[in-house]
Specification:
The chain is an alpha/beta fold. It contains 23 helices and 16 strands. Among the domains are: 152 residues, Rossmann fold; 194 residues, 3-Layer(aba) Sandwich (Rossmann fold). Helices cover 39% and strands 10% of the residues. The strands form 4 sheets. It has a 7-stranded mixed sheet with strand order 9-8-7-10-11-12-15, with helices on both faces. α4 crosses α5. This is Malic enzyme.
């Protein structure tokens, strides 16, 4: 997870993580509070001072010993969904142990706490439900939104909000109120990957109904049981949430997640000029994909000016990628965005998007002139043969869409084709890396949207068998760092230049820059170091543009990195300092994001 040395010279900062934690809880209330609970790791002095001596077995253990036991318990769960449920239960009992277990086994567990397993958990939300976590707002109680949001803290206690309306979840579509789990999962990643303080976050679902007939007909479904509310009432619902969140938590960064295509970009463009907000499906996917493309072009000794990009799947993610790439081309070539868009072709269900295709506003800027394609085939392979792209991106959720003939067509036109099948979960990938490499004799530069095992093949000198690692084009290497940088500098907005800076931060750390056989993107095993670099770039860009409002931000890069690391929460047990209830902070009293007692949960380490 990279170096996590702390820097006490910044211990005066509100988000500093050096030194003891003040705690006013004692006895059972302390053991049932996930933020303070250490279970068997409470020291002898703490057990006496906090009245725990009769509540715990006498052996005092280390966090590492607890992780070993928790991992053994985790390993007995019979499938990934059961493992996901086990981890969720642990999170409600002991946050430090939960995040330490994940960080020690991140490569193994990432797919369990996020895609694809989290998608299964969301689909089964109403069936595996045990207790609520997060804020549930519904379209019929708009007037209650300010009150319901206010229950989560005071003005300076929330840094990061993830909100979804559950319409377009992880490639599995409309999941209604089950979308709350994508909000909580994203916040887990912000803490795990970038050290966002877990008790200063807020997951939200905006329940406006669901168009998922399976859920509507499920007697156990927990959300509103009617079709989605749209139009003016929906817009008023969202706006009431946004304005209430800004008034109650003026420093909070709002992360929009998994909104449907008709709303995702529209809402982002509406609120971007006003507040610090971000849409991971539009911007995060675009940023990480651009980083992979830039690394691939570097390996093939090309520049963005040489790029010819085909995007297969023109939904939220596909158009978001196209936008990010277009903006980067425009910046590098010093040309307008319309001119830069001519290097990009979008294909969706009707085929290539042209001016005669039914389009939504987000797609219009990429439509090709219909007269240029009159009488021509506009399917994927035909477009590839005609435009000769060097990069192919898949965001279609159409399994096996990148057939052998499609992949071979890519290889015919460029020496080192960059092929990125990004749809997830795994079963929805356009192609698997093994086939892509086989069909291109190992020449393709591949990154995927979900994790894949390394691929062996005869691609070394003289046909020698070599093993190629497959980069995961995972938003988690970019969106947590963008959020961290924005939170720490208290950005008033998230600008295009901040996003471009974030991309450069990821691309600079591409393993492929030093070894052409290495992955195009850094892996999750070094994601904390990546997040520090991304956060540094974001903060510097925010300062340069005048949107950073925090005072005392260091100018020197090394000192800035120290400033960032000191404010990143780590899964370590900090000493507890007993304070009286009277006059104690809300955090010391255990009132920030309390998730309740531990009764009735999965059996795991307390």
């Amino acid at each position: 997870m990279g170096s996590q040395q702390k820097h006490p010279k910044f211990a005066h900062l509100p988000l500093a993580t050096s030194g003891p934690l003040e705690c006013a809880l004692k006895g059972t209330p302390l053991l049932t509070h996930p933020y303070f609970n250490k279970g068997s790791a409470f020291t002898k002095e703490e057990r006496t001072q906090f009245e725990l001596t009769g509540l715990l077995p006498p052996s005092i253990q280390t966090l590492e010993q607890q992780v070993d036991r928790a991992y053994q318990q985790y390993s007995t769960r019979h499938d990934d969904l059961a493992k996901n449920t086990f981890l969720s239960s642990m999170k409600e009992q002991n946050e430090v142990l939960y995040f330490k277990l994940l960080s020690d086994h991140l490569t193994e567990m990432f797919s369990v706490v996020y895609t694809p397993t989290e998608g299964d958990a969301i689909q089964n939300y109403s069936r595996i439900f045990r207790r609520p976590e997060g804020c549930f707002l519904n379209v019929h109680d708009i007037d209650r939104i300010p009150h319901d949001l206010s229950l989560w803290g005071h003005a300076d206690e929330i840094d990061y909000i993830v909100v979804t309306d559950g319409e377009e979840i992880l490639g599995i579509g409309d999941q209604g109120c089950g979308g709350i789990l994508i909000s909580t999962a994203k916040l887990v990643l912000t803490t795990l990957c970038a050290g966002i303080h877990p008790n200063r976050t807020l997951p939200v679902v905006l329940d406006c109904g669901t168009d998922n007939e399976e859920l509507l007909n499920d007697p156990l479904y927990l959300g509103l049981r009617h079709k989605r509310v749209r139009g003016d009432e929906y817009d008023r619902f969202v706006d009431t949430f946004v304005q209430s969140a800004r008034k109650l938590y003026p420093k909070a960064y709002i992360h929009f997640e998994d909104f449907g295509l008709p709303n995702a970009r529209r809402l982002l463009e509406k609120y971007r000029p006003e507040i610090p907000c971000f849409n991971d499906d539009v911007q995060g996917t675009g940023c990480v994909t651009l980083a992979a493309i830039m690394a691939g072009l570097h390996v093939s000794k090309q520049k963005l000016a040489d790029l010819r990009l085909v995007v297969f799947g023109a939904g939220t993610a596909g158009v978001g990628i196209a936008d990010q790439v277009r903006d980067a081309i425009a910046a590098e070539r010093n040309i307008g965005k319309d001119e830069a868009a001519k290097q990009i072709w979008l294909i969706d269900k009707p085929g290539l998007l042209t001016t005669s295709t039914p389009l939504n506003p987000a797609q219009e800027g990429f439509a090709r002139p219909a007269e240029e394609w009159e009488g021509s085939k506009t399917d994927l392979e035909s477009v590839i043969d005609r435009v000769k792209p060097n990069v192919l991106v898949g965001t279609s959720t159409k399994p096996k869409a990148f057939t052998e003939s499609v992949v071979r067509a890519m290889a015919r036109h460029t020496e080192r084709p960059v092929i990125l099948p990004l749809s997830n979960p795994t079963r929805l990938h356009e192609a698997v890396p093994e086939d892509i490499l086989k069909w291109t004799d190992g020449k393709a530069l591949v990154a995927t949207g979900s994790p894949f095992k390394p691929v062996k093949g005869p691609w070394g000198p003289g046909g020698k068998e070599v093993e190629l690692e497959v980069a995961e084009c995972n938003n988690s290497v970019v969106f947590p760092g963008i959020g961290l940088g924005s939170v720490l500098c208290r950005a008033s907005r998230v600008t295009d230049k901040m996003l471009v800076a974030a991309v450069s931060g990821v691309a600079e750390l591409s393993p492929a820059l030093g070894d052409a056989t290495a992955p195009l993107l850094p892996g999750v095993d070094v994601v904390r170091d990546v997040s520090v670099r991304v956060a540094r770039k974001v903060v510097q860009a925010a300062v340069a543009e005048g949107v950073a409002t925090e005072e005392g931000i260091p100018e020197d890069e090394e000192t800035l990195d120290e400033w960032i690391r000191e404010q990143m929460w780590d899964p370590v047990y900090r000493p507890l300092k007993l304070v009286g209830m009277e006059g104690a902070s809300r955090q010391a009293r255990g009132e920030m994001r309390v998730v309740g007692s531990i009764g009735g949960r999965d059996q795991s380490e307390l």
